[in-house]
Amino acid sequence: MDDFLQTVALLRARYQRPAGFNLFSVLRSSSDEVRLHSRFLAFLLDPKATHNQGTALLNLLLKRLGIQNFYLENSIVEVEYRNIDILVRNQSKQAVIIENKIYARDQDEQLWTYHQRIQAEGYDKIWTTYLTLDGSEPSKESRKSLSVKLISYEAEIIAWLKDCVPLIAREPGVRESVFQYIELLQKLTSSDQGEIYMSKLKEQILLGENLFVIADINHAFKSILADLQLDIWERMVAYQTTQYAQLGKPEISATKEAVSAYYKKAKNSKFIGLTFPFTFMKGGVYIELNHRLYVGYYCDGVQFPEDRERLLMLGREFTLTSRKSSNLFWRFSKFNVNLNAPSNEDLALLRDPNMRESIAVSLIDDAHDLWQRAHERFT
């Protein structure tokens, strides 16, 4: 076993190249759904864009997604049309809705509402698609009874981009942009290991009893991730109890069992965390997990519309969110670690107990800040 691990370490040191310069990472957060991913994808799909390929790139994606008989001539591609991330439509009253989710969570009836909006405009053939890193399903509350086609960056989008390369080979700016975008997506989906390294690694795994050992290691790895995540939640509770008792005792859904279910990909295992209900109005502050940790306000708008509107207006005072947005304020942790499919950088942070403490402290500080803003305003 020691020889096997030593061999793997040597292979990694020899063949796994470090990440190089990537313009997308420099200009935008890699998880910026609208201003990075949606805009770049829409650029490639748009027949009128300066990639000079007309409808060819759009046609490649539609074929890969199994969308047939879509009339490509005079197609229009728009970003954020009536809050739809990407909308592709034509004069034949056909439309493709692409809802792009990197880490953001679904809103109630979101996909259903988008479909209804486009249908009300007279489109009689609508394909509603849901794009995520790994092909995850939307929530039942978002889709309702709507049929939704699942797309993943890891499978369909990276493969489509590679299909595009021969067509854009003579457009150096576009070609290099696509290459760098593929690298960014491979990093986001933890599929950025070099081909030679992976080939050599697979050879080693197939030797002797190594394959069975790897199965045990994979199970242990998930268990370790669960332990590290649970440690962060426990540190949050301990820090809040000593530093911000005024928040009250939290409602805890991030239990040991829930964290374990998360890594087993059990149904409805996302969105676990801590909730701090207000004592001075309805709603409260939460810290939640949807692959990455974030903090925000919550309030049931159906039961308590006035309190929700108050929190909505408060959030708009300290965020750049559009005035048209109906979402209550939320933001990611400044330690933007992917707890579902951690990169090497994420793993280096997670194994350090001081860093786990920093993550916990930062999130509780953020939650207290939101709580304090509401308390000062509404009491």
Automatic annotation (TrEMBL):
InterPro entries: PDDEXK_4
A Pfam family this chain is assigned to: PDDEXK_4
Origin species: Pseudomonas hormoni
Protein name, entry field: PD-(D/E)XK nuclease family protein
